[in-house]
Structures are given as C-alpha cells and as structure tokens.
C-alpha cells in the first residue's frame, strides 16, 4: 500500500530530466502530494497534483508496484494522467493500465541561459492578474486550480503575460503551467484570428527575460505529433533535452 509521505523525502530521487511539476510539488511551489511504500528513505515515489496528474520516480520495485497498482485501481473513475520517465516505468504501467488508456509521446525543450534572445515586436504587454484570469478564454480560474491547486498559488509563484486588442479582448497569453525553484514550463494560447502575427514569440520573449531575472530555466513540453509547436520552440532558440511517454484515460 502507498502512503503519503513528507514531500521533501522525494528530492533525492529527482534528476534534471524530471518533469517540472515534480520539483514544484516537492519544493512547495505547487499544491500536491507524494506517496511511497516506504515512509523513510523511499526508493520509489508517486507524485500527484490535486487535479489527477501523476509522475513516478525511482526504481519500480515489486512492493511499490503492488501498492501503485492498488492506488491506480482505486482511481478508476477519476482522472489519472501519468508522466512516465523511462521504459522501465512504461513496462510497469502497461501491465496494469485500463483498456481505455491512451499513450502519447512527448518532447521536452529548454532554453539555455547562455543562448542569445531573439528580437520581438513592439507591443504593449500586460502581466497576467486577477482581471485577465477572469476574462481569459483559456488561462482562467479553472486552469490555475487544475495545474497549481489554486489561483493564489499561481499569484504567489507564477509568471505570465498577455496582449489584448482595443476592445480589451485577450489575443494571446503565455504563462507558467508548472514551475519549480529552477525550471518553469511555458504554456501559450493565441486566438485563431491573431495567429501568424508574432504574438506568441513576443510573449515568450517577455517570459524568458523574467525567467532569467529569477535564474529559472524556461521549459517547452509538447506532443511529439505537434509539429507546429516543435518548430516554434526551435525557432525561438529552444533545444531538445528529453522525450517521454504520457498515459491518460481516453474515456475521462
């Protein structure tokens, strides 16, 4: 059986390629929980956000896998999205996954602090706040509750920017989806009518500049089949650092 443990005990099982949200929960930036079959000196951990996304780390020993399987079965009617770090965990999870589980290949990029920043368009950029969250078509209250646990957690630790038209309608936004002490994952949304005008590039530039001020490495994580996102990341100077598999229930 898996039990909730002190999140700090998972720190030694994390490496530089681990998902940002794993660090974010362990370091206290994002609301969540850590589970293991060992209360002290865990050899494997399951890290959970409040919204049903999970990451696994360490070695999948038999006792932990048994507890993990039981934990997973109890969540059969709930969202269960798993970030799997390597083929060992892929094999472990694929033995217990439900029939409606889908598998997605993901690509991770980062922007090295030594890379030169690109030029941007001259636009009036605003910082994401309560006002923009209330009227945002994508990065609204539900979004921040899902990924951060609460809007307050985002307001305390997050960074985000947006641009709007003369009528006050948001055209594009760039925000933290996850963050930790040293990394932050970018999430971008541009309204269809405003695409192809360089808005995303401009917002990412503002995002990256603020990350550098705080000594945070910007991360870009997307579906392997999303060629447009992958090309944009490369064009903006991001370089690939990792690939992994994401498992999710197709019926939820």
Automatic annotation (TrEMBL):
This is GNAT superfamily N-acetyltransferase. PROSITE patterns: GNAT. InterPro entries: Acyl_CoA_acyltransferase (IPR016181), GNAT_acetyltra_YdfB-like (IPR027365), GNAT_dom (IPR000182). Pfam families: GNAT_acetyltran. Residues 123-252 form the N-acetyltransferase domain.
């Amino acid at each position: 059986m898996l039990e909730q443990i002190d999140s700090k005990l998972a720190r030694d099982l994390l490496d530089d390629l681990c998902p940002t949200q794993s660090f974010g929960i362990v370091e206290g930036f994002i609301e969540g929980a850590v589970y293991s079959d060992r209360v002290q000196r865990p050899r494997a951990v399951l890290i959970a956000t409040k919204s049903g996304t999970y990451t696994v780390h360490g070695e999948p020993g038999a006792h932990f896998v048994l507890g993990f399987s039981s934990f997973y079965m109890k969540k059969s009617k709930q969202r269960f999205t798993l970030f799997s770090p390597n083929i060992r965990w892929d094999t472990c999870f694929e033995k217990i996954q439900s029939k409606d589980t889908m598998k997605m290949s993901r690509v991770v990029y980062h922007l090295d602090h030594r890379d030169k920043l690109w030029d941007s368009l001259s636009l009036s950029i605003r910082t994401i706040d309560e006002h923009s969250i209330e009227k945002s078509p994508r990065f609204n209250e539900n979004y921040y509750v899902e990924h951060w646990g609460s809007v307050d957690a985002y307001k305390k630790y997050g960074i985000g920017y947006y641009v709007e038209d003369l009528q006050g309608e948001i055209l594009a936004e760039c925000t933290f989806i996850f963050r930790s002490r040293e990394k932050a994952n970018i999430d971008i949304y541009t309204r269809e009518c405003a695409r192809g005008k360089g808005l995303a590039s401009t917002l990412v530039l503002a995002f990256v500049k603020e990350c550098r001020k705080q000594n945070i490495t910007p991360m870009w994580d997307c579906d392997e089949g999303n060629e447009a996102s992958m090309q944009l990341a490369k064009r903006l100077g991001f370089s690939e650092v990792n690939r992994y598999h994401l498992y999710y229930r197709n019926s939820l």
